[in-house]
Amino acid sequence: MSEHEAEPGGAEPRGTVREYRTEELADAAGITVRTLRFYRERKLLPPPRREGRIAWYDDHHLARLRTIAALLDRGHTLGGIAELTAAFENGRDVNQLGELLGLDGDGLGWSEETPVRLTPEELADYFAGEVTPENLAASLDLGYLAVDGDEIVHVSRRLLDVSSALVREGVPLAVVLETGRRVREHAEALAALFTDLIATHAAPAGAAAADAVDPESLVKAVDRLRPLAKSVVEAELSMAMDRRLRPPAAGS
To answer: How many CB atoms within 10 Å of residue 39?
Structure first.
């Protein structure tokens, strides 16, 4: 195969994107050419760009090789890495983040959540031993994760930190994700309740439902009153947890 990767005359490849021959890529990644070809055969790497009989790799291939090395160091098997790679490549694209965060096509929506960019190995560090293809698929399905080239984008710094903290406390990530799914169902109902309330009573030109109010007016009203809705939910949740933990009254 070496004749496929040597450019006649030793000329550098054209274009602004840095590219590597097989030997150069292997050297940059700290692996052997044989290992590189093995990864390619296992479909752990995307196909190289072909120029006639010459194969060219770029920095995305190098990033993928470094990710493979990092995940191997963390105890993942090549088979598991292949499944994770397939899940990432079939996952939500980062362009869908606006939809996940509730942003509409007119840019009227907004969110308090801060997305977080992670490499696959950084995600593995957050949830040591718990980043399985099943959990990854669940996270993608929930919209917690999106894929942007060689990086992963988590939709919310707060959710990422809370999920990681629960896993460190011994709660399996699969349980955390299923709980998140159930919480979302209740959150959607609460959001509908408060949005209709604001649309009916607090937005200009109030109407019987949120979809009957001018969208820009509704956004401004929700912007103003969202902290009040959050305070109600937080106080009610706190009191509900107290009631569950309160010992039963004597004689009851």
So the answer is: 21
Is there a contact between 107 and 217 (Cβ–Cβ < 8 Å)? no
Please give the model's pTM, rounded to 2 decimal places.
0.66
Lowest mean pLDDT among 1-5, 91-95, 109-113, 195-199: 1-5
pLDDT of residue 162: 96
Q: What is the pLDDT of residues 158-180, one digit of tens each?
A: 999 999 999 999 999 999 999 99
Q: Which residue has the tokens 């107290």?
A: 242
Instruction: Please say whether the structural domain 16-71 has been given the CATH code 1.10.1660.10.
Output: yes
CATH 1.10.1660.10 segments of the chain? 16-71
- Specify whether the backbone of 143 is left (phi greater than 0), alpha (psi in -120 to 50) or beta: left
